[in-house]
Amino acid sequence: MNFSNLSEIATYIVSEGKGILAADESNPTCKKRFDTISVESTEENRRDYRELLFSSKGMSENIGGVILFDETIRQKTDAGQSLVDLILESGALPGIKVDKGLKPFEGSEVETLTQGLDDLDERCAEYAKLGAKFTKWRAVINIGDGIPTQECIDANMEALAKYAKIAQKNGMVPIVEPEVLINGKHTIEDCYDATSRSIKSLFDYLKSYDVDVTGTILKPNMVTAGSDSDQKSSVEEVGEMTIKCLNESVPDELPGVAFLSGGQTEIESTEHLDKMNKIGGFAWKLSFSYGRALQQSALNAWLGKPENKNAGQQAFAHRAKMNKLAALGIWSADLEN
Length: 337
Ligand code: 13P
Known about the structure:
The chain is an alpha/beta fold. It has a single domain, classed as TIM Barrel (Alpha-Beta Barrel), CATH 3.20.20.70. 45% of the residues lie in helices and 15% in strands. The protein has twelve helices and ten strands. Helix 8 packs parallel to helix 9 (235-249). The chain starts with 5 loop residues before the first helix and ends in a 10-residue tail after the last helix.
């Protein structure tokens, strides 16, 4: 695959219903996932699990990019092939998470600022040499009493813009991820407000830092009620409000929006994405960049046992296919069986 500019890379990743597999869980997060299936989080087990996913037949035609963690981009399969080459062979592009997690925002107990700008230029240069074609940086916005504050939103979105500029300077597409967390009792209207303020601020900063949005992918949350909310929103409501929110601030020249799943179930993530693509009325590709919603069934089928490798791969292939159909707006519930 040869690309002559960042826009071609970004466009390829979300072409023809393809989406992104987020497999960039840090080692502590991977341990959390493995704990649920009682598998020890060793370097070898993490490698085996990622190799299972990347060599599944579900990769080709469904997955345009895979986000990796620093450890994974350096790993090799059992047979000695680099995981980067395994991903390329499937037709997907390797990418890398480059942020260094969260620290409290100005001493706050609830608000955070994402770190990692200090040595970002050097790290990006190395990742580009290791074969990464794109990068990811996640900002986290909490909803609660009196938050998110505009100061916290702006500080996070400015950091995203600085990161995006550095990624592009190193020849990689930045995925900009302003995640408004689903945790809490808030209403769908509260989520709309926080998401809308975050995305508006983000595109203002991307513009002022002269980031090329034609070579950028946005990874937002969907607009939903909080996970502990009494409110139950319909699939239509989530679809309509998310599209409205994005249309307010996302420029038409952006090639793709690829949602995070953020704690929604596998089926909810697929159904919401499908609904939005059925509704239509936006200029960008609307696709997925799921972690949990692409991996949950696969993890449960695998259980860390070599004899379950096939079952894990099939479970992943099914979700990858379902989400591709959703990105094309042609999914239906009966295809799940
Ligand atoms: P989830 O889809 O599990 O939210 O993960 C996506 C991701 O990459 C979060 O940064």
